[in-house]
Amino acid sequence: MISATEMRIIDRNAQHFGVPILDLMENAGKAVADAARQDFAAAGKKVLVVCGTGNNGGDGFVAARLLAGDAHVTVLLARSPDQISTQEARTNFARLKTVRVIEGLDRSEGAMAEADLIIDALLGIGASGELREPYATLIREMNASGKPVLSVDVPSGLGAVPVAKPSATVSMFDAKEGMTPANSGTIRIADIGIPAQVARTIGPGEFLLFPRPRAESHKGENGSLLIVSGGPFTGAPALVAMGALGMGADLVHIATPALAAQVVASYSPNFIVHPLVGHRLLREDTELILELAAKADAMAIGPGLGDSPGTLESIRAILKAVDKPTVFDADAIRAVGQDTTVLAKKKAVATPHAREFTALTGKTLPDTLEEKTKMVQDAAKALGITILLKGHVDIVSDGTRTKLNHTGNAGMTVGGTGDVLCGAVGGLLCKGVAPFDAARLAAFSNGYAGDLAFKVKSYGLTATDVADNLGRVLAEFVD
User: Fold this and answer.
1) pLDDT one-digit tens code per residue, 76-115
2) How does residue 455 score in pLDDT terms, banded at 50, 70 and 90?
3) Closest CA relative to residue 298, chosen from 328, 324, 321, 332
């Protein structure tokens, strides 16, 4: 079973990866026509296909065309043809050359009374609230007709009022969240030609998860991230911050040891730097960090902190005490690997490379992608977190859902790109994106930004080049 949002993501990704929407629509319509013949003996009968003006209606147009060879088919179009909203649906409407078409509510009730079977292709996934006209009336008339109803993908209005009450539903790719035999009738799952590889690959569709700021929002409302980073390594906190800002965080607060604070602040006036006590993260810093975390929406911790025993102990204490969504990387992964109980009940994302995955789990990754994927999924489930395993192909899993990311290039082996990725995850977490969604969206964005940088800098690209291109990724894919 799949959510409406996830289905829209897969549809968009399928188009991006070269699967034509017209092909998907043709396959969907064929599945509906087949169900009408097999389950309702539609051949020779009067079939009324009630179509909306979106792609659900487009599926209905295909079904109508395919049924017209052996049934008496009429299409009832909810609105005028000039309101059909997608090119694919318009193309399939134009192919209804021999099918009778009527429009609106004037003759709808009579057409339903004459029909032997009604195909419901009014509304697809994502309906909510009170439906507008003419959809509300058409759904009520279908329900009152006493005729068998076959719904396309979901019963029209599912999740809204009113909702169609079909005898059966042909659901595309997978059943949708909320569907049951009680509200959908007999549920048929139709394979409409989305390859399994596409369904599990991260793509531009993931940007449907990106939270667009309200026009009237003000500073801080779109995410405040606390970054606990640096000390022995002064560049890491800046790169994490650049990654977060590149993904649209409003504010980045950097808690870093006093030795690094001035250097980190010098990188950018956009950073709010809070010096800690000493030259490394110490247990004495915990109180200040907890105060800062209380005012933040999420936390990123680990890069550049170093692996001294006192620092690792401090990291664990901070992770245990902070109750905000957290991304942890680098030295924080080593710290957690020594005591994973600090992750109990945490909304957390780990971003390890292969060696850090071993430090976190005690397991060495196998060679094949399928075996790696299974190991990452099992580890994520056991730890109760999301893992974003960095590699030639990134693997993102929360233990239940798993997706693969193919953006990025060999030039990104340069130091610091992982810090930018950590910041990108943190930037999304602080904007309210759920851990699994933040991880997959950040993985694609970081890799795609690296690909944009590679076009200009080739193997001479740097981590700052990647960070600088994150905004361009958003400009390309956020509607």
Assistant:
1) 999 999 999 999 999 999 999 989 999 989 899 999 999 9
2) very high
3) 324
Specify the DSSP class assigned to residue 73: E
Phi, psi (rounded to 5 degrees) for 154: -140, 155
d(CA 135, CA 339): 56
Beta-sheet pairing, 394-397 with 272-275: unpaired
DSSP letters of 110-148?
HHHHH-SEEEEES--TT--EEPPTTHHHHHHHHHHS-S-
User: 191: which 2 tokens?
Assistant: 């394979």
pLDDT, position 259? 87
Which residues partner with 100 through β-bridges? 74
Crossing angle between the packed helical segments 354-361 and 331-338, to the nearest 10 degrees: 20
Between CA 362 and CA 369 the distance in angstroms is 19
**Rounded CA gap, 223 and 209, in Å?**
15
CA distance 10 to 194: 8
> What single letter denotes the amino acid at residue 476?
E
Q: How far apart are the C-alpha atoms of 349 and 251, rounded to whole Å?
A: 20
For 112-132, the pLDDT digits (tens) are 999 999 999 999 998 999 999
Q: Under DSSP, is residue 405 helix (H, G, I), strand (E, B) or coil?
A: strand
Cα distance between residue 111 and residue 123, in whole Å:
19
